[in-house]
Amino acid sequence: MNILTKTDFNNLNEKFDEIINEPVEKIIVETTFPNLDTLNDSNTPYNIKCAILFIDIRDSTGLVNEVGTKKAVKIYRSFMKMAVKCVRCCGGNTRQFLGDRIMGVFLDDKESDENPISAVEKALNAAKSMNTVLDYSLNPKLSKNSKKFLTYGIGIGYGPALITKVGMKSKGKTREWGDVWIGNVTNYASKYADLAKQGEIFIGEKAYSKLNETIKSEYDFKEEKRYKNGKYYTGYITKNQYLDYCDELCDKFEYPVKNTKSRKKENDYDLLIELNKKNDEIYSLKKDIKNLEYKLSKKSDELNDYKLNLIKRRVELYK
């Protein structure tokens, strides 16, 4: 019978003690990608500053339901090949294949390099490349072949990440090792991809700060604040960015205009976001009022104590 045995349980229990009690040591990697094959199964991760890009397919469940699993295989294989190629050509490495989304990692060039490029600029180049391939090649082909096209969002963050090996040594040929990139940069880049609308690239404030004024002007960024799952995310949006030679390519794919029902749904969503925003403001104000009430009560008690002490002193003076 294939089941976790008492021995397996005890082995895991011992391993948890080993992992939890062992201190986490950092290996600093500045401008080169870590060799994950030599990364040990221990609490000694790599520590690396990088730009992380996520591209996410919208409504992937609905996509499979609409076209069927066989056509979905073609779509996913094409999408992943597109993403890996664009990341690789722009100086990055691809990590975390998650079916309907993929993560690209980019490092800053050394300052001593000739014409050094920042990690964020590389990520933007990759995003621009993805837009070009999707809108001038893949989506036109998918639309013709399966009457379907991909909508997607791209998010970019910048900051430190810890890279650790996870999984277990495999007894057979199946690979059961992987690597996880842990840090706010990963979490936020993923959220930015969720928040980006079709045709947008959403980058975080830290990523934006790494760009020079020429690049900022070239991409015509606009500051934006968006709401998701009870939290606001501030960043910068750029729209409709393509490679310079896109005019030499076939006609650009035109996304269908949303029908009244879709627009109404989007408007309802915007209203819901605004409602949540107002609720958050009310909650914040109530919290401030409670804090003020507490401070007022405390000051009132202090004043009463002062009055009482003053009365006691007067009584003692008149004795």
In short:
With 319 residues, the protein is α+β, with helices and mostly antiparallel strands. The chain has helices at residues 6-21, 60-67, 69-89, 119-146, 184-195, 205-209, 213-219, 260-317; strands spanning 27-29, 46-57, 93-97, 101-106, 152-167, 177-182, 200-204, 222-228, 231-239.
- The chain-level structural class is alpha+beta
Biggest beta-sheet profile: 9 strands, mixed
Which ranges are low-confidence, i.e. pLDDT below 50, for 5 or more consecutive residues? none
Q: End-to-end span in angstroms?
A: 93 Å
The figure for the number of domains is 2
**Gyration radius from CA atoms, angstroms:** 27 Å
- Please state roughly what percent of the residues sit in beta strands, choosing from under 5%, 5-15%, 15-25%, 25-35%, 35-45% or over 45%: 15-25%
Order of helices and strands: HEEHHEEHEEHEHHEEH
Kindly state the number of beta strands.
9
CATH topology of the largest domain: Alpha-Beta Plaits
Mean of residue pLDDT values: 86
Principal-axis shape equals extended
In percent, how helical is the residue content? Answer: 40-55%
CATH class of the largest domain: Alpha Beta
* Annotation field: number of helices: 8
Provide the CATH superfamily of the largest domain.
Answer: Nucleotide cyclase, GGDEF domain
Going by CATH, the architecture of the largest domain would be 2-Layer Sandwich
